[in-house]
Predict the 3D structure of the following.
Amino acid sequence: MQFKKEFAKLMESTSIPSNLPLEEGVKMFKELHDFVQPYVPSQLFRYRECSELTFDAFNKDILFASTSDEFNDPYDCLFRYDKKGLQHSIMQALSKEFIFALRGYLRSGNNFPSELNSFYTKEFLDYARTSIKDASDSDILNSEVLYSKFRKEFNDNYEKRIDETVESVKRNAYIACFSETIHSVTMWSHYAKFHKGFALAYDLRDMQMRCINCDKLKLCKKAVINNIYPVIYDNNRYDATNYLISAICKKLGLPINTPDLLAVTKCQLYKSTQWGYEKEWRLILTLMKGSPVENFYGIENVSPKAIYYGSKISPINKKILHIIAKEKGIVEYQMYIDDKSYNYSIQYKRI
């Protein structure tokens, strides 16, 4: 589909650096939204297993979202990065100017930036605190000891910290997955427990970018930006090297801008072409700085337009879902296998 090719090019070419004024960044977000909006299908389907959780979500009109580290495919959202390149770039950033910046920070009455606590041991930071705060300019410029210790400590913990940073990227956005098709035998098998589950149809064309139009966006600590995009199926993984460099440098307390605020979203959209049959769209909910992760799980008040019962759903589960569907006044369909058909297609009929 031409639209999806154009979208992939637009997403790849759009970068929103963190030092860009908020108004300009919001404008670029909206441009992406406006490009995609006319192509969002009138119906997108969400395959579900039968469980107390999914029944409750259906009843309460909640779209639960997950982080990519919880997906069934370990290659999903698997971005690439150059470990050696990362290490070299960060070592270059660990300059004596970095030591001067830390000294100024300490002399202003501050403790070490909290990010450093995740990268260095307490013993090392206690040593560095006493060594840096009272050091003169010449002490720092002429002594290689402290500078070398910072670099050695970084190298000793590098492998572990890079792995932790990669995992944090996977947990930095919440995703609700949908498909353009209700006829996929494979998806009914994978995501609806071997056709024993159900699927819900949603019209997400009017899904707004929550918080993006709010005049309190700059100050709000609960801000969340959401948007819906088609998955980008590609044989090549998204390269997140530059983003990871900035993420690790921030953990080290280095004053560096994030090169692209869309990097995490891009990581969540790339998927192997082997999964192309899913025709997937993703509702991605991105936490703004300060958003309370513990209270964040998805979107409320999103009502489905129809429900589809799997061809092997149990009578009791169907009855429970039917009661909820009837109360909501939504259309009900039953999936079935056409015994007369020459192919392996799955059909549905209205109840």
